[in-house]
Design brief:
alpha+beta; 364 residues; six-stranded mixed sheet; globular; binds zinc ion
């Protein structure tokens, strides 16, 4: 196995410490790549680890390459969906319903998906069989789904995905009947919605909250007024009216429909990583990197993954119990690491499945 380590560094720092092996990317950033066949590989990573105790150095990652015989002997593979197979908008933005009442306040784990996954399937990368949204919802092609069924692959479910266009993020109040009514009411109560630049394109959700803090007092007043229950009900009605116009404008393709894509969920028993798995390539695992409720770790992994062999039920698809990342994008929460069996890996390779790479995982 050969490792390739890559890091982004502050340019001044890179120029002073590693002038020969770093390359400038811009005025402020440098890039450094080291392969494990370089005799200084470990000492450079250890030096970075030392420096990183003083200040944050930058994002880094390791890729691993294997010989054919290493691949043939492997008992388990860590399945990595490639960055080029990642897409947006995520399920939530396309109308997927999540129950977030059980969401962990620390790491964001614990949301439950309550509806079929809705996606704008036109945004799924072309020519791929396995993809993920930026919120780690996993998507497989109909071709891969058929292969999994025909080959009796175990440990997964492939649920339907509905095509749904991206929900419109803004409502132009003046374009809807209820919106115009709202503007009239606001005027009668002495407010001037026209002075409020967002009255023409009022942002909802998170942005709405942010604007509440940013905008001038008069606009703020209009926003607060919109938040009152009666006005809010009308505002939501205006939102629906606007959505209807949006669908008319973008044609029948913009309405919800069945799609050939499937949502991949893993149903096998979650596996446990052993202490052979080391965390933090250039830094140590700190208490604040561990969710106190035991859901997730917020640190990258320095080694290949080592799995307790008794925790794996030998199904072809598996995932870790522990999740990775705190409050990652979207409702879905931090993702686990994924695994595939040698049988499934062979099936992927023989059928030229696109969108993933693997690293060897070890059973101990
Ligand atoms: Zn948590």
């Amino acid at each position: 196995m050969r490792e390739r380590f890559e890091i982004r560094l502050d340019r001044d720092f890179a120029d002073s410490k590693f002038p020969d092996i770093s390359q400038p990317l811009s005025d402020i950033t440098s890039r450094m790549v080291i392969n494990s066949d370089n005799p200084d590989y470990s000492s450079i990573i250890n030096a970075l680890r030392e420096y990183n105790r003083e200040k944050f150095l930058g994002f880094c990652w390791i890729e691993r390459y294997y010989t054919r015989s290493e691949m043939e002997k492997a008992k388990l593979f860590n399945l990595i969906i490639k960055p080029t197979s990642t897409f947006e908008p995520d399920g939530e933005d396309c109308g997927t319903i999540y129950d977030i009442s059980g969401k962990c306040e620390r790491c964001g784990a614990g949301a439950r998906q309550m509806s079929d996954l809705m996606l704008n399937t036109r945004t799924i990368p072309k020519g791929k069989d396995i993809c993920r949204t930026i919120s780690n919802e996993w998507v497989i092609s109909e071709r891969l789904h058929r292969l999994l069924i025909e080959n009796n692959i175990a440990g997964f479910e492939a649920k339907p995905i509905k095509h749904h266009p991206e929900a419109p993020h803004s409502v132009r109040l003046k374009m809807t009947e209820t919106g115009r009514e709202l503007i009239k009411m606001a005027r009668m109560e002495g407010m001037d919605p026209n002075s409020y630049k967002f009255s023409r394109c009022l942002q909802i959700g998170e942005l709405h909250e942010k604007f509440n803090e940013m905008i001038d007092p008069n606009s703020y007043k209009f926003n607060r007024w919109l938040d009152e229950p009666d006005h809010e009900a009308m505002f939501i009605k205006a939102l629906y009216e606007y959505a209807e116009k949006y669908e008319k404008r973008y044609g029948p393709k913009s309405v919800e429909m069945a799609s050939p894509w499937r949502q991949l969920t893993i149903t096998s028993k979650p596996v446990e990583l052993t202490n052979d798995t080391k965390y933090g390539i250039i830094r140590d695992l700190k208490t604040e990197d561990v969710c106190p409720y035991g859901h997730a770790l917020r640190i990258n992994i320095a080694t290949e993954l080592y799995v307790h062999k008794d925790s794996w039920d030998e199904y072809d698809f598996a995932r870790t119990r522990i999740l990775f990342g705190f409050n990652v994008h979207g409702c879905n929460g931090p993702p686990p690491k994924l695994f595939i069996s040698p049988k499934l890996h062979r099936l992927f390779a023989e059928n030229n499945i696109k969108g993933y790479r693997v690293e060897i995982a070890h059973l101990v």
